[in-house]
Design brief:
Elements (H helix, E strand, L loop, with lengths): L3 H10 L1 E3 L5 E3 L4 H10 L10 E7 L5 H4 L19 E2 L2 E2 L3 E3 L17 E8 L36 H9 L8 E4 L17 E3 L2 E2 L6 H9 L10 H13 L4 H34 L10 H18 L4 E5 L21 H5 L2 H27 L13 E7 L14 E5 L10 E9 L1 H10 L20
Parallel strand pairs: 3-11, 3-12, 7-14, 8-11
Antiparallel strand pairs: 1-2, 4-5, 6-14, 7-13, 9-10, 12-13
Helix pairs in contact: 1-2, 5-8, 7-8, 8-10
Length: 459
């Protein structure tokens, strides 16, 4: 039997060292957690709570996303609507069954672990372009006009406020990711970042998957060591002999997930080299869009799973970026997502395809998190609050009311999901953020312009 001192050491370090100084973080393993706790005379540890966001730029196309709006007219920057109507009738605030629209259809497989939330509003503070406050103020902790001398109602964002509580023991208190690989900085930082340390102090997002990988696994000083799973396998084989049967399977699955990420990055690197050699003309961005978004999402989930961080944000694209983007397998030629929203009568089918892909990418991560086992018979999804959302209720009208929001996860058993929750007119988005703070055990009575919580999602 392994000595308790070794169990405590390994549990505390939670990584395997490989050649060249690289390190592979370990997922939760019952074989070591239970022994460590027993050695200290404690009950098995409770799994860590996590918070993550999946942000959609440029709003959505309402007729594909919201129930009852399939025949919605395509407006030209006129009219706003947050009175939900279904089959010609106004629907009262409260809990309603799921209606899986074409855009939300990918969530059907996880319908009991996600909730659609409609009717939440923001207030646009005049003084900037409407897109400038979308992502940048999505998670802000201040009400409009509260910050003096600034056109932005922007202060420390929710991810950093939460990390002050649940991110103290992780290597990185937060992880900020963005799928904007464009090299032309045509907009200010407010169009391209959703995470902020405070007013005017951005928490810059990482955009290069290789750099994210290096940050997670400490390989930046050893770029010649590309495949860290091979480098760590020596220690891994020694460790596996001390694992239970279920942990061995979990360990193998974790290693295979990391190896898959490595192979995908190598494939992208090879493709970029081949395109450069062939002088193939492409848009300014150079990563395959589908692969890029999936890869960055997988890196965020891996970081949450291994305990590198407990708080993550992922922007799948920037706001109001006019550079055409390649959407391989979805659209037949490069398009500007923002540009398409200005001509919905021409591009509605393409917009619906993009919205469906974004929701599919979110659903894919939800399913993956639900498959990752953690302590006490729970899963990574059960111990995470994972929110999909956009800072606009419609990419064409630029409306700030009736935002598209889906909450997934379990909040450690404190969330009751599986429904469509329609909030009464005028309910601030900040009510959702206040609810999430309290679920995570952060005692706060008010957040930004909140007026209360959303009790319908509480268990």
């Amino acid at each position: 039997m392994m000595k308790n001192t070794n169990a405590r050491s390994l549990s505390r370090r939670r990584f395997l060292a490989g050649a060249g100084g690289v390190a592979l973080s370990l997922p939760w393993l019952e074989s070591f957690t239970n022994r460590c706790d027993a050695a200290d005379g404690k009950q098995p540890s409770e799994p860590a709570q996590r918070l993550a966001f999946f942000y959609l730029p440029n709003g959505i196309t309402r007729r594909g996303f919201f129930p009852g709006e399939g025949d919605r007219a395509l407006p030209k920057f006129a009219g706003q609507n947050n009175v939900w109507r279904f089959e010609g009738k106004s629907v009262p605030a409260g809990i309603h069954p799921w209606t899986f629209t074409p855009t939300l259809a990918p969530l059907h497989k996880v319908k009991d672990k996600v909730s659609l939330i409609t009717g939440l509003d923001r207030i646009f503070q005049h003084g900037t372009d409407s897109h400038a406050q979308c992502a940048s103020c999505f998670l802000t902790s201040v009400a409009p006009f509260e910050v003096k001398g600034s056109a932005y109602p922007l202060a420390r964002t929710l991810d950093h406020i939460v990390s002050d509580s649940i991110g103290k023991t992780t290597p990185y208190s937060t992880l900020e990711l963005s799928c904007n690989d464009h090299k032309n900085n045509i907009e200010s930082i407010y169009f391209d970042n959703m995470s902020w340390y405070g007013t005017g102090h951005v928490a810059p997002s990482m955009r290069n998957p290789r750099q994210v990988y290096d940050r997670l696994f400490g390989t930046q000083a050893n770029t010649r060591f590309r495949n860290i799973t091979d480098l760590a396998l020596g220690n891994a084989r020694q460790l596996q002999r001390r694992l239970s049967t279920s942990d061995r399977q979990k360990f193998d699955e974790y290693f295979e997930a990391i190896r898959t990420i490595e192979k995908r990055m190598d494939r992208i690197d090879a493709m970029k080299s081949e395109l450069a050699a062939a002088k193939v003309k492409r848009p300014a961005e150079h990563l395959p869009r589908n692969e890029y978004i999936h890869l960055m999402g997988d890196l965020m989930v891996t970081a949450l799973q291994s305990g590198v961080t407990n708080v993550g944000t992922l922007m799948v694209g920037p706001e109001r970026w006019t550079t055409p983007t390649n959407w391989e397998g979805i659209l037949d030629k490069p398009h500007s997502h923002h540009g398409m929203t200005h001509a919905p009568h021409i591009h509605v089918e393409n917009l619906l395809k993009l919205d469906n892909f974004h929701v599919s990418a979110f659903a894919r991560l939800v399913e993956r998190m639900d498959s990752i086992e953690e302590a006490n018979g729970t899963t990574l999804l059960h111990n995470t609050i994972f929110t999909l959302g956009a800072g606009m209720g419609d990419g064409t009208t630029h409306q700030y009311n009736d935002l598209p929001l889906v909450v997934a996860g379990g909040g450690g058993g404190k969330l009751k999901l599986g429904n469509h929750i329609h909030c009464k007119t005028g309910t601030p988005l900040a009510n959702l953020w206040l609810t999430q703070l309290q679920v995570l055990g952060i005692n706060q009575e008010k957040y930004a312009d909140s007026t209360g919580t959303i009790p319908e999602i509480l268990a």
